[in-house]
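Box 4.2: Ligand-aware structure prediction
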Amino acid sequence: MRDYKFLGSFREDNHPSHLPIFPATVWIGRSNSGKSSLINAVSGKNRLAFTSKLPGRTRDIVYFGDKNSYYIDLPGYGFAKAGDSHKDFWEKSLSSFILKNDCISMIFLLIDSRRSFQPLDIEMLDWLELNDLPYQVILTKIDKLKLKELERVKKEIESLYKLKREVLISSSKTKKGITEIRYAIEDNNNLFFTNRHQ
Ligand SMILES: Nc1nc2c(ncn2[C@@H]2O[C@H](COP(=O)(O)OP(=O)(O)OP(=O)(O)O)[C@@H](O)[C@H]2O)c(=O)[nH]1
Ligand SMILES: [Mg+2]
């Protein structure tokens, strides 16, 4: 398995110039949707990314890396207490970070399965579509739902949006869906290298 390490946390709206161009998996979603927890589950390291019960834990652009790939943990959006300055930060710095970054192999858009899509998630989806960015939806915290309920949420999302990629499911607690996410990351990264060498 890949061995990810903390590389640093940044506030610049660009890929850090000292880091080589490798494929990066970017994790975005509402505050508290489970981004940092999922990074830990997928990397198999309990305390790689900081997690918290309180929303707004991740404040910087955090890079983790192994020998030839990255995970990028982004601050969540929709954090009520953070107010306008946080929304500005998202809209200006983080959106330009995503648009300017040549490393992105996939953006995982995390949605808390109990909450389904909220207005800000829809804004994010529209923005990803508008900018023709590669993204895939992952439903998180599925241990909190009964199987029937999960099927309903998944169907609802799939029927509402013409998503190009299947909706993945995950639980950082029970580790359900984690292997599939690891495979998806390997595929995305291989594709990134293939495309770059064409
Ligand atoms: N039951 C359950 N709880 C989870 C799961 N994933 C995350 N949580 C909990 O949800 C809370 C938020 O998780 P984080 O991983 O810190 O969320 P985040 O999206 O990184 O949040 P921000 O950094 O604030 O944007 C924590 O209390 C986690 O323990 C899961 O799969 N199942
Ligand atoms: Mg976080």
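In the box above, the bound molecule is guanosine-5'-triphosphate. The beta strands are 5-10, 24-29, 61-65, 70-73, 104-112, 135-140, 168-169.
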